[in-house]
Amino acid sequence: MAAALPPATLEGWYALHQMFAVDWARLGAESADRREALLTEAAAHFSAAASDAGWSAAFQLVGGGADLLFVHFRESIDEIGGVETALRRSRLAAYLRLEYDYLSVTEAGLYHLTAEVAREHEPGTEGYDKAIAERSAQEGASHQVKSRLYPRIPEEMRYVSFYPMSKRRVAGDNWYLLPIDVRSQLMRDHGLTGRRYAGRILQVITGSIGLDDWEWGVTLFARDPLEFKRIVTDMRFDEVSARYGEFGRFFTGIRLEASDWQNLFAP
Prior knowledge:
The chain is an alpha+beta fold. The chain is built from 10 helices and 11 strands.
């Protein structure tokens, strides 16, 4: 079986995570009327309910070197670009400084499916390509996979944690040189750890190979922020993370509702 065989993937919404610092001194110097107009506009950017076309949400960051996290999901990268441009042109933009952003697309990695097909067909052949396409379409039609590609966040999950990650490529621990069946088993074990948090954590995996500096983004939503510590700790002990995982910065926040903007930006 080919060691370098990549897994089939399914993609859904594009995602953009933006971390901003607020110019509190400049904002505080504005008149009450000016500040009220800014807050009304800011809340309006995030007031639309989630739909089949995507959604946006704002979070107050706690730590992490920034003040606000904006998360956007849209059907196309063009629409993500439109959201980004609209925010840059808003009045609020004059009081924000971008500290970090991350572009990716929701992804379901089909490791197990790819390993199965590779046992039945020679990779690169017409039979292999046809079987991958057919079985990927079947996977994509399932409710479970659709919920990963087009995520809707439960209202009661107010807390968010985001971090980027990559798989290691060093001598002796190179993820990309492992046979597909080995990677499939490692990812299966890793997934079983995550499933223990079903109902407590909603995890959104976004792929960013070719789109950003890291290879994946992980966005976690929870009712209790301590669940972030628990699930990440548990997963660090899986071999796929312990040997092959490399992680970037972590950002943790609290979702802002329309009424929260006034309290956050109060003088």
